[in-house]
Hints:
Elements: H1 2-16, H2 26-40, H3 50-67, E1 96-102, E2 113-121, E3 124-125, E4 131-135, E5 148-157, H4 169-175, E6 178-192, H5 197-208, H6 215-223, H7 231-240, H8 250-271, H9 274-277, H10 280-299, H11 304-321, H12 328-342, H13 350-368, H14 384-405, H15 407-414, E7 416-418, H16 421-449, H17 451-472, E8 479-481, H18 484-506, H19 511-534, E9 540-544, E10 553-557, E11 560-564, H20 576-587, E12 595-598, H21 603-606, H22 609-616, E13 620-623, E14 637-639, E15 645-648, E16 651-657, E17 671-675, E18 680-683, H23 689-699, E19 707-709, H24 721-727, E20 731-734, H25 747-755, E21 759-762, H26 763-766, E22 769-773, E23 778-782, H27 783-787
Parallel strand pairs: 4-6, 11-12, 12-13, 13-14, 18-19, 19-20, 20-21
Antiparallel strand pairs: 1-2, 1-5, 2-3, 2-4, 5-6, 7-8, 9-10, 9-22, 10-11, 15-16, 16-17, 17-18, 22-23
Helix pairs in contact: 1-3, 1-12, 2-3, 5-16, 8-10, 8-11, 10-11, 11-12, 13-14, 14-16, 15-18, 16-17, 18-19, 20-22
Amino acid sequence: MTMRLLLWLSIIVFISSLFWPRLLDNNEIIFCGVLFISLMLIPRLRILAVIPFFAVYFSLYTSLALTGSFFAFQPVTNLPFSNSAPLQASVDGRNHSIVVQIKSLISDQNRGYFRAKLVELDGHHLSYSPLLEMRWYAPTVKVQENERHLFKVRFKPIYGRANPAGFDQQKYKYSEHIGYQAIIKSHIKKQKSAFSLRAYLYERVLNLSDSLNNQGAILALSFADKSLIKSAQKALIQQLGIAHLFAISGLHISLFFSCIYLCVAYFTQRFFPKKYLGWFSWRFVNLTALLGAFLYAYLAGFSLPTQRAFLMLLFAVCILSMKRKCSLIDLLGLTFFMILLWDPLALLSLSLWLSYVAVCLILIVLWHFPQFKNREEKNGEIFGFTKIKHYFKFLLLIQFSLSLLMLPIQLLSFSSFSMLAPFINLLAVPLFSLLIIPITLLAVVFSVVHQPIAVLLFTIADRLISYFFIVFEQAKFAYLSFSYDQGSLLIFFVVLIVVLYILFKLQHVNARLSYFFTFILLSSVLLLLWSEKQNKSHDWQVEILDIGQGLSVLVKSQGQSLLYDTGPRYPSGFTTAAVETLPYLHSIGIERLDYFVISHSDIDHAGGADIINRAFLPEYILVGEPLAPPALQNEKTILCRAGMKWSLGSLSVKVLSPLKTGTNNNNNSCVLRIDDGNYSLLLTGDIEKKQEIKLIVQYRGDLKSTILLAPHHGSRHSSTNAFIKTVAPQWVVFSAGFMNRWGFPAAEVKLRYQDQNVRMVNSGLNGFIRFKITTDNIIMQTYREDLAPYWYHHSFSL
């Protein structure tokens, strides 16, 4: 009992780290050390000593993995494995010479984006090699896995865009042990050209599958390289609810282990009876199957999900091989604890929670429906048809149970799911597991042995994947996105169903207690819904999304909404509107925009205009100047002109500029002033000094606003002293990318606002910004400090 308590108390300490505002500093680590010794000296409290122990373990491990030093902020020299200085000391805006060992498979599509281990920094060999994300905007040579190269780079901390409904890039990168990015300025030389069997196989498969339509899928299933999957196919995979089949993790490793186990067990029983091998017989089968799973994990590059899957499999096999009595809950707890002990940062990975919860739910379902695991044979044998029927009944039960019970996690993580996913997976799981993946892996082997057979097998796998997508392509209509409120309601009903089911089962034990708890539960639900309805606010909000270097602002009042700008579009075609603005608008239940304003034609403001227009069909569209034809084609589009007025809920909106379209597109920005009679907001786009002077002359005191979106992201050519004094804002918001190459906001601009006692907030540093405005006051919230103030949303370099 004591060991079980120790186990789960340790797991709780690890999980609590998800809610820490920061990691332990040096003084707190010393305090925890003293507390640990004190608790160990008191027999009755000794069990609590795991709390400070694992809190210190998590902090030291995380600091070492992400910065290369145990003490990220006050480095201590001469510690084993730790570097004398953390990586944050190299984030100084200067060039550094580094030697790295490439850890990614490189193709033409990802030559400028790969991962590498840092081996040397400025001529000094490191005791610990942290993982870096390498960015190379103009590659001059081709690199490959395991090679060592000398580069001239500039360091930048990982600091992803931070929005409530967007992809949490920083959390994901930290879970992958990446804390810093190296921007390659030049390649100096190749230091070492080490052979990599994985890279060799990858190159052969890449060449042999070059003409296939599903080359990207084949490489994803064999090498865990998803860089060649086309964006349209990625979207389809997500919409069909089968993304787990293309990410090598627990499902693939365990299925591959099972296949080898069954084959080797059959071969052993047939040719080497137990009387010859004795006790070694089943151990030989386990070892062979584990070796096969290990080789598959190697092909996948020992990515962290495959590491966790293999570790969990290895530990479970070892426990079972020892023939020790171990309850199911203890086995699950032990494997989870071993994963966290091996890699505490796995807690930040969504894949861990999805796979682990799925395994737990499958085991719970099997425990609750024992007839599916203890199938009685009739006349000593189950006929083939009955076997198949039983298998599909079992698979159907598992799929529907997983779909229902995983729904809360699915909605919390993605705010969407496919209604047909259980039916699609009913065919997809056996098709991929029993046919496509084995054929693909067999083809990888034959790519070295006999290429014509490899080409044939790759072609068969390619055809099977194509047929699958052709059959199920139309099922993407069942992929539904939900707002936060809708998702919460669905999660609530799922939990309610499960709880009511449990209470129904309890009535056989104690009917009165079951009915009492049911009444309390339903009464609480009705009270919660009523209080939620009473607390609905009619105040207006201003929300500035963190979209990197660009601008996107949402204003809401009494059910109406106005979106001002969309964020940037990059040469690759990537837009932040698709991954940040659009998901956020969906999450808060906006289905149609009332007003859509594009300040001017610059790509960092109008980059996602077409995406927003198609997704939300705005009632009115205003632009500061004509846009390029592909950007926005809508007959509702009109040009912004000074003097335009309209209402937005309880607010009045007025266009202050431009008076006419000029040659400077920045000064063509559509300037809006929005106010409720008490507080006001001024949206300025990219206007510069010349236009600021015109606005001062034209409007003077009418420019005064409570909140100001800094002109041109805080450029030194904007935000003149006269303009700031005339507007007299309480807050100024800089919408700029983190450590952007233009240096926005400029130091002299920040000093101007500081001199006039204006409170400054920067989306690049603070993430998503929200102003909640009532008749009495204004409440400002930021993502990193208020909405999600956790250590993994901050940088060790700030």
